[in-house]
Amino acid sequence: MSSPLLEVLDLKVYFRVRGSLFAKVKAVDNVSLKVFKGETLGIVGESGCGKTTLGKTILLLNKPTSGKILFEGLDVVKLKGRKLLEFRRNAQMVFQDPHTSLNPRMTIAETLLEPLREHKVQLNDYEEYLIKEMESVGLGSEHLYRYPHELSGGQKQRVAILRAIILRPKLIVLDEPTSALDVSVQAQILELLRDLQRNHNLTYIFISHDISVVKYMSNRIAVMYLGKIVEIGNSQKLYEKPLHPYSVMLLSSIPIPDPLVSRSRKKVIPQGEPPSPINPPPGCRFHPRCPYTMDICKTKEPPLTEVEPGYYVACWLYAHG
Amino acid sequence: MAESLQDGQVLKVRDLEVKFYTYAGVVNAVSRISFEVYEGEVVALVGETGCGKTVTTRALTRLIEHPGRIENGSALFKRRNNEVVDLLKVPEEVIRDIRGNEIAYVFQDPTSALDPLYTVGTHIVETVTNHRKVKAKEVLRDAIRLLKEVVIPSPELRVKNYPHELSGGMRQRAVIATSLSNSPKLLIADEPTTNLDVTIQAQILELLKNLQAKYKMSLILITHNLGIVAEISDRVYIMYAGKIVEEALTTDLYYKPLHPYTQLLLRSVPNPLKRIEKLESIPGVVPSLINPPPGCRFYPRCPYATDVCRREEPSMIEVEPRHRVACWLYLKR
Questions:
Q1: Any alpha helices (H) in A98-166, and if so which ranges?
Q2: Considering only residues 228 to 247 of chain A, which have any Cβ-Cβ distance to chain B shorter than 8 Å?
Q3: What pLDDT, on the 0 to 100 scale, is given for residue A147?
Q4: I need a surface site. Which of A63, A266, B54, B208 has the fewest CB within 10 A?
C-alpha cells in the first residue's frame, strides 16, 4: 500500500430542500479519505448517514458541492471529454437491488455489451467473449439471451457485477450488493467478489449497513454518522476496540450469531435516533445521543485526529483540543 | 378430538398444509409441518425467503387469502379461558375474536401495517373496542400508557400523530403498542426489524424481550437473521422449502446443528467477532415449490446426499432430547 488510488479531499455534497430557499441537506459534509490500490474500504453507517451519496459522488453520479476527488492523482471533478470517459471506464458501480439496476427490456447479452460498445472495445467474437466472462462469475451460457426476469436474485446480481467488471476497471463502488439477497446466496456473492478482486486486482469501496458483512470484506473501515466520518482505520482494530462512542454503540447493536456470546457480552443499547441531516446538532453531531458528552462537544466540532498511524477518530475524548 | 394440549402448551400445530392455486401451478407453500409453542416461550421460525414461514403463521388465524388454501392439519390453541380450540376449524366469528386479541401480529413493514388516515391512538382504540365493550375515551388513556411502555417519548402528543409523522422505528413501536393493547397470549412478530437500522433493531429487540417477559406472552419470531435468533429465542425451528427440517433449543442448534442445511446456513453468516478465512456458501438455489423435488427437499444442494435422499422423504426423529431433525443421516434404515 503505497500511493492511494483514490483520494477524497474535503468533499461536500449538499442537496437543496424543495420548498425552502435556504435549507440544505448536508448529505456529505467535509469528508476526506484515501483508498489504496487492491484494498477494500468498507463504509458503514445507518440509513441517511450519507454513505450511498458519498459512493455515488466518488463516481461523479452526483455533483459535489465542493471538494476534490483525486483518482490516480487527477481531480476527476474537472475532467472532460476523453479523460472523463477514461475515468468512467476505470471506476464502476454495483447497486443494491439487481431487480431495478438491470434494464428489464434488455437481454443479459445486451446489458453486457453496452459498456463494451460505449467504450469502443474491439473484439473478434463478442459472443464467445461474453460466454467466457459469464462463466467467470458462475453463470451458464444459457442465460445469455434471457431477460432479467428469468433469473433469480443471485443470478441478477452476478450479471450486475459482471457488467461492472467487464471493462476491467480499477475501482468498484459496491453499494449494499447483498442486502436484497438471502443469506445462503449472500455468501456466494461475497465469495465471488473476493475471488474477482484477487484475480483482477480490483479496489473496492464496500458500502453496507450490515456491519458483519463489511467486517468480513474490508481491510479498512470508515464509520459515518450524519454526513461525517467519525472513525476510520484497520477493520480488525476497529472491531476489537472501537474508539468513537458511536462506533461502540453501532458494534454492540449487531446481533452475534452465537447464543452464549451474544447473551453474555456487555451491551450498550443505543439511545434515541439519528437526528435530521437538515439541521444537524451543533458541535459534535453525535452529542445528543452520546453517553460521554462534555461541554466542548456541544459547541465545537471535533477534528478527525490520527490516534495511531493510519487510524483516525473524530471525538473530543481523543483529541487534544 | 384425538389430540390435546400438553401441560404448558399454548399452541400445537400438526400436519399443517397450505397450497396456493396459481396460474403457474399449485405452490406447496407449507407441507405438513408440526410445531408447538409453550407458555412464556420465545420460538424462532427461521428460513430463507419463500420457505413458508410467514404463510405458516398467517394460517394460524386463517389469514390466507385467495388463491391460497389451508388443505390440512390442526392448530390447537389454549384460549384465555383455558378452552382448547382448533384454530383451523372454529367458526369465523371465533377466529375473528381471537385474531388481534389473543393472538396478535407485528408485521415486517410498519408503514403498511398502519393506516395513513388514522392516528396512532385510533389504531389502538379500534383494536380494543373491536374485542371488548369499553368506552373509546378510556382506551385512549390506556393507549398513552401503552405508548409509554414501548418507549415512545412524549406519548400524550404522539397518540395524536399520524403514521407519516413518525420515524420508522417509532412506527414499529406504535405497531407493537397496538398489538399489545389486548394483552395477547401469543404474539407473532414477522421480521419485525428487517426494515430498520441496526441501532433501532437493537432497541426494538430489547423492547420485545422485555415486554414478552412482562406480559408473560409466548412469542413466535419469524426471521432470517441468525444473529437475532441467537440473541433472543429459547427454541428454534429451521424451515426449508415449506418444511421444518430441524428443531432444537437455541444453544443446541448453534453448537450442535444436525441438519446439513442448518450447518451450512450457520457457516454462511459472518460472525464479526471471529476471524473467518472463507465463508461457506450453499451451492444452488431454493427449489421451486410448484414441483418440489421428491424425497428430501434439500438433497439437490446437500453435500451428503445419497440415493435414499432422492427417493424418500425423511421423517422427523428425535436424535437427542428436544432436538429433532428430518435427515437420512440420522435415520436408521
A1: 98-101, 108-118, 126-136, 153-165
A2: 236, 239
A3: 96
A4: A266
